[in-house]
Design brief:
This protein is an all-alpha fold. It has two domains: 109 residues, no CATH class; 104 residues, no CATH class. The chain contains 13 helices and no strands. The radius of gyration is 18 Å and the shape is globular. The two termini are 29 Å apart. The model has no long low-confidence stretch (mean pLDDT 95).
Length: 244
């Protein structure tokens, strides 16, 4: 994938970074940075991001490695759950910013994995965090779709549906369900995107990508959805995700 560097990113992405940066501490970075031979470099880089508020524009190993390894962690195994979640919300916000600066998801963290991280870590006690994520998911979906290189972009549409339901925005969630059906079909019809995988895997949404290690979480998200408006497309999305 070709990296198309940008100098500006959407304000919602900056706002999410600002929010998560305010919640994380220096000690969180010292405690939760991956404990491998790169630890010292990770800490130096991420402390600099925390202290300066400057978001890197180009993906590099000490960014993507931390974002990726942190994404694979099981928060329930961490001694201090809330501090770990604050840390991962922070690293994920930098990951999203890197995408908006023009880095491909392959250089940061695969798009459907990063979307999952943001959803699974949503702070349900904070209307602000939920509101910021909703805005970020919309602009990120548009960004990835426009590249015509990121086949995972409909996962952000599905994420918008999930977040809308968490926000009790049932009409909005129904609209995103309709958009998701359209987006999913568009990827399958797009020869630049579907040549690798989509035509051989008929599973709704999940069949668009070969990056499938977190598909169980996406199915679990679908199991928690409801359809109070009895919307046909919402029910179709739920059934298609659960039943495959």
């Amino acid at each position: 994938m070709v990296t198309k560097q940008k100098t500006k990113i959407d304000q919602s992405v900056r706002d999410l970074f600002k929010y998560t940066r305010a919640e994380v501490t220096k000690n969180d970075i010292l405690v939760f940075s991956p404990n491998d031979p790169g630890y010292k470099d990770y800490v130096e880089l991420w402390l600099n991001i925390l202290e300066t508020g400057n978001i890197p524009k180009e993906a590099e190993f000490n960014l993507s490695e931390v974002i990726g390894l942190t994404g694979w962690c099981d928060p329930s195994e961490e001694e201090n759950l809330e501090h770990f979640l604050n840390y991962r919300r922070f690293t994920s916000s930098v990951g999203i910013a890197l995408l908006h600066y023009g880095n491909s998801s392959e250089m940061v963290r695969q798009a459907n994995y990063l979307a999952r991280d943001l959803i699974i870590d949503v702070d349900k006690t904070s209307n602000t965090h939920l509101s910021l994520l909703r805005k970020v998911f919309l602009v990120t979906k548009d960004l990835l779709e426009e590249t015509n290189e990121e086949e995972d972009y409909p996962f952000f549409t599905f994420g918008s549906m999930i977040l809308a339901q968490l926000d009790n925005d049932w009409n909005g969630a129904d609209n995103y369900a309709s958009q998701l059906i359209e987006d999913e079909n568009n990827v399958r019809k797009n020869e630049l995107l579907n040549y690798f995988h989509a035509n051989t895997d008929s599973r709704f949404l999940l069949g668009l990508t070969c990056y499938d290690q977190l598909h169980k979480d996406w199915i679990d998200f679908a199991r928690k959805l409801s359809n109070p408006n009895k919307n046909e497309n919402t029910q179709l999305v739920i059934d298609s995700m659960i039943d495959g």
